[in-house]
Amino acid sequence: MMKKAVAYFFLLAQLIPGTVFAGDYKMVLGKGIEVCEAYLKNLNSFPKAPPMVCERPLNPELKDFQKPEWKALDVGENFALLKEILRYSYKEKGGDFEAYYNKVLPTLKNNITDRQIKLSVTQLDVDLDGKLENVLRHEIDTCDPANESLFATPGGREFFVLNEEKTKIDVQKTKKIHLGGRLDIFLYKGQISIDGWGGNLGFKDGVIYVYTIEPYATPPSWHTVHRCDYNYAPSKSQRKS
What we know:
alpha+beta, four-stranded antiparallel sheet, 5 helices, 10 strands, 24% helix, globular
């Protein structure tokens, strides 16, 4: 699985003509923290890779890193989950959710027809209680590395914690892992980390950030911590002439 992802990543590099390819990353947050130091080594083990805007591969030689195994869901058969995702995103706006839902429903159906929406699930111990939770990955729109900005608008990848029946979103647990952007999840020695790309169009001010899920002294006894930042620096030899 990981080898296929790495192969796809380098294929992507061939599809971004006339732009920045190679570069490296400098740690600006997280020095001395084990996961941050290890992830820096991983990032810079791909010296000929394009900026890691859409995907951030793991080097299969670094055995402490893993990606979760995701199981694809049929979007049409799980249409109710899309409504729950919209409900979660809409909750802070207030107002009549059902009216809003009926308004966007045609667009939502078109996105499904055009295969712009992907759903998949895995199981992770998000709240560190020794029990696995159902985690939903929601992806919308394709990622164009050269045209992605800070929050990967209009597309993106986000995560939700579901109930045992996989029918509802656990709002309290999801709050801890629902961050903006085109995110991904990796495991380092079993610890859950969430990474993403920030910056402006054309890879300007590019930064990869990492949040880790860690124990906390008071209830709910776990939290998400911003641990690592890596600034992207394009290789001068690879700049567009």
